[in-house]
Amino acid sequence: MKRNKNILGFSFRILPLWGLGGLALLLSVSVNGQTLEEYLQTAAETNPRVRSAYSEFEVAMLQAPQVASLPDPTLTMSAFGTMIETRLGAQMARFSLMQMVPWFGTLQAKEDAANLRAEAAFQQYLDLRNQVFYDVKSAYAEIYALDKIIQLKKENLEILNSYRELALSGFRSGNSPMVNVVKVDIEREAAKTEIELLQDQRIPLQTRFNLLLRRSPREAIIIQDTLTFSYFNDHLENEKILEGHPTLTSLENQKRSYEIQKTIAQKEGLPMIGLGIDYSVISKRTDADPHMNGQDAVMPMVSVTLPIFRKRINAAKKEAEFMTRNVEEQKEAQKNELQNLLETTVYELNRAKKLIALYERQLESSDQANSLLISSFSNATGNFEDVLEMNQDILLLQTQKIEAIKEGFIADARLDYLFSKTEQDEP
Predict the structure, then answer these.
(1) Distance of alpha carbon 163 from its chain centroid, rounded?
(2) 17 pLDDT exceeds 70?
(3) H or E stretch at 49
(4) Fewer C-beta within 10 Å: the chain N or C terminus?
């Protein structure tokens, strides 16, 4: 199920959500998802976990033709060392062909069960692919936030350089002590070290992202300038949304296959019917010439198995019943887990939206306060330490805002995973 993301700046508006009657409030920084979409497409085509899961589905697809086929016919050939005389001549050789046929509907039931298992494997592939999409988006958001914070730190270093000139100018004019210059230098050195550490931190993030796409760990990653994520209210029909999730669909198909497996066990407890033909080669008599002298003998045959040993059949039926109940419990547990994850994700989206709005207001006020403090210091009526402290507060708010955008984007990616529906596609 696709979810729309619109450009709204930092304003909010109410939009309908997927025809479910819910309301979506979209929070957007800007959007240009083309690059990220290309990364996701690459992950779907090259990620080893995704390819392995799809191979398992292809293997499961090959089971239906195997279980739905008749057993191989039996051909028996025999030659007589000592000829057995009959009225029409001596038997020289004998050929018997027998085809066993399972009870009516057995093969069709086996094929249906195999197809359901294949469909379950396909849903497992979809779920793993969607998990990889979430991993790619999460890694992408981590790199985005790190790059933005590095950019902020570099801009802040330029600001500190200008503050140093301001403090130095105040010292030369006799309006401020030299200690203000030293304080700025301390913060400048700290800022340089933080930038270096953050740049080092990017290496493992870049490696993780590239390995998800089966690329070289050091391959360059293009990160867009903005991220977008959606904000939803709490009035969602969560159970209806989650019921089509691939994990639940997979478990439902497994359950149905086990139900059919019980029917198969019952049918295998019924007789198998054998249809065949017996052909005897007869030589001509030389001592007499009876009617049909030397004519080969053809005899149709029918056989029936006698399934009198019931332990295997009873055990197979019990196994199918136990597995059906087991999958029912798994499905209930998985549904509860998805429900809990959805509630947590909606909370995280709401929290990110509120924090971004808070940081926006605080940054606006802090910028005004910062301008007043700088003006006051320039006029020799303010404290330079207040200027440095306000600058650090602004940097912290900017960093927290980026972290909130990152967390909101990751939660939105998890929402995409939770709302993913079954689809008929392949890598």
Answers:
(1) 50
(2) no
(3) helix 48-61
(4) N
State the pairing for strand pair 22-28/14-17: antiparallel
pLDDT at site 227: 87
95 strand-pairing partners: 77, 279
Q: Which residue has the higher pLDDT, 366 or 295?
A: 366
Residue matched to tokens 């800007």: 30
Half-sphere exposure of 143 (CA within 13 A, CB side): 22
> Tokens 């999958």 appear where?
327
**Residue 380: what residue type?**
A
229, 3 Cβ separation under 8 angstroms = no
Indicate the pairing of strand 74-86 with strand 89-101. Answer: antiparallel
Confirm if 247 and 123 have CB atoms less than 8 A apart. yes
Q: pTM of this prediction?
A: 0.81
**pLDDT of res. 24:** 31
* Under 8 Å between Cβ of 10 and 361: no
Give the whole-angstrom CA distance, residue 152 versus residue 195.
10
End-to-end Cα separation, the chain, in angstroms: 18
- Report the SS3 class of residue 100: strand
